[in-house]
Amino acid sequence: MKVSPALLIPLIGLFSATAWAEPPAPAVSAANAPTGFPAVPPKGRIILWGADATKAGTPLTYQISYLADDAVVGQALQLAVKATWQVEKEVKNNKTGVMEKKKIDERVVKSFPITPKKQAVETIALPAFDKGTAIELYFAGNTEKLPPLSNAVELKKRGALFLLPEAEELAKTVAALPETAPVKPAKPHKVLVYTANSGFKHDAIPLGARTILLLGQKSGAWETLISNDRHMFEPETLAQFDAVMMMQNTGSLFGDPDKTVNERLRKSLLDFVASGKGLAGSHAATDCSYDWKDYGALIGGYFAGHPFGKISVRNEDPQSPLNAAFKGAGFDIQDEMYTFREPYSREKLRILLSIDISKLPDDPAKPGFKMKENRPDHDYAISWIQEYGKGRVFYCSFGHQHHVWSTPSLLQHYLAGMQYVLGDLKADAKPSAKK
Ligand SMILES: [Zn+2]
Questions:
Q1: What is the predicted pLDDT for the residue at 424?
Q2: Is the pLDDT confidence value at 137 over 70?
Q3: Residue 64 pLDDT class (50, 70, 90 cuts)
Q4: What is the C-alpha to C-alpha distance for residues 333 and 409, in angstroms, rounded to an integer?
Q5: What is the pLDDT of residue 106?
Q6: How far is the CA of 284 from the centre of ligand 1 (A)?
Q7: Residue 307 Cα, ligand 1 centroid: separation in angstroms?
Q8: CA of 123 to the centre of ligand 1 (A)
Q9: How confident is the model at residue 411, as a pLDDT?
Q10: How far is the CA of 306 from the centre of ligand 1 (A)?
Q11: Which of 13, 25, 190, 332 has a CA-to-CA distance to 218 between 20 and 30 Å?
């Protein structure tokens, strides 16, 4: 099934979607041309940038969601977009006179008139470029009151990161979405899906993030904002959300070069959950911030390896409403299955699903397959919940392979997990070892 990008825009719209008509020709003057980007955006300007691009069509269409500070709302501004990508060119070596292949940076800077709302999704079109693209955006002011460069956040290191999922894939997800949520939400909720990653870049991130958005949208259980901007974790910004979903993050979760800022954002997340809010994590959400032990305890464990692919799943908690989709049984599945190390512990976590190692066959092609085990206790959890202060945590390692995001039972598992962390779906979180 083909879905045109134009049809997808309402699907992926967040708070309001304004499709821009044909973008105006580049109109960047010396006054608002980008010159540099502050490492830490000045507090109180644009708080969020996130972007997506469709693969279909040229030029590429980017969805940019933002949350603007009051200081810029309603002002006549420019949305300045700088895209940098690499092309291979034959260049003459000045010393030897020989033509050599060289990677050259190509850049385009465009600006679009914009009157920022408090929060909105805008669609802009940029020239098509290869992977390896870095996009930087900021509001550029036209008055003295607003500095030419009011704020900027680098959106991505690689073009693929913010690509929208393929239309066909998204259509499969849409078809697999549960009709309703397990419970009616007690109040409207907002969820932040955080996609930043600085280590291995999972290509399922755009699909996973969109799936969380669609799960909330279709069921009416929450609204979603997708962002890779660590400044979303500033306490006053984070306060508007009821839960965070860590979507396959790698590297340092916040990675701010300023240690003080980093510490502030870390404390903000811990306080957020402890105060009664929710944290969910998918797949590589356990494969990041290894030096931040409090995060390991919060999410429930750290990645130890992914030795298994095809597995049998044990339903550890058939009574849990988070496992309702599995109807009391286990199932077979193929994904990149994680194993975990400390602080992973059944003394703290309520395990929902795990790998049934007894059913893991020795791979005839690779004798000794079971020797890939990396825990003497053979305990390989897949998903779990735990209480943290007054808040709740749900983690599920499924999600590396794209089919996970269109498997109905797993979508129901994620939906129920989200409703659990949001506080709507009640579940017994007594640690498995204390049952
Ligand atoms: Zn993976």
A1: 98
A2: no
A3: low
A4: 12
A5: 74
A6: 6
A7: 11
A8: 30
A9: 98
A10: 8
A11: 332
Expressed in angstroms and rounded, the spacing between residue 405 Cα and the centre of ligand 1 is 14
Question: Where along the chain do its domains lie?
Answer: 5-162, 167-434
pLDDT digits (tens, 9 = 90+) for 244-267: 999 999 999 998 788 999 999 999
8 Å CB contact between 276 and 389: yes
Distance 400 CA to ligand 1 centre (A): 4
pLDDT digits (tens, 9 = 90+) for 329-341: 999 999 999 999 9
Give residue 300 CA to ligand 1 midpoint distance, Å. 17
Q: Given a cut of 50, is residue 121 above it in pLDDT?
A: yes
What is the overall mean pLDDT for the chain?
77
Q: Output the CA 168–ligand 1 centroid distance in Å.
A: 21
Q: In Å, how far are 39, 157, 204, 287 from 134, measured between CA atoms?
A: 15, 5, 19, 24
CA of 230 from ligand 1 middle (Å) equals 22
> How many angstroms separate the alpha carbon of residue 183 from the centre of ligand 1?
31
Rounded to the nearest angstrom, the distance between the alpha carbon of 41 and the centre of ligand 1 is 31
Q: Which CATH architecture has domain 167-434?
A: 3-Layer(aba) Sandwich (3.40)
- Cα-to-centroid distance, 117 and ligand 1 (Å): 37
Residue 208 Cα to ligand 1 midpoint, Å, equals 12
Which region among 230-244, 281-295, 421-435 has the lowest average model confidence (pLDDT)? Answer: 230-244
**How many angstroms does the Cα of residue 283 sit away from the middle of ligand 1?**
7
CA 363 to ligand 1 centroid distance, Å: 21
Entry pTM: 0.70
Answer with the residue of higher pLDDT: 355 or 119.
Answer: 355
Secondary structure (DSSP) of 65-115: EEE--TTTTT--EEEEEEEEEEEEEEEE-TTT--EEEEEEEEEEEEEEEE-
Distance 333 CA to ligand 1 centre (A): 15
pLDDT at residue 396 is higher than 70:
yes
**Cα 369 to averaged position of ligand 1 atoms, centre (Å):** 19
For residue 328, list its beta bridge partners.
none
CB–CB of 348/429 below 8 Å? no
Please report which helix (H) or strand (E) contains residue 214, including its range. helix 205-219
Length, in residues, of the chain: 435
Token pair in block for residue 374: 């990396």
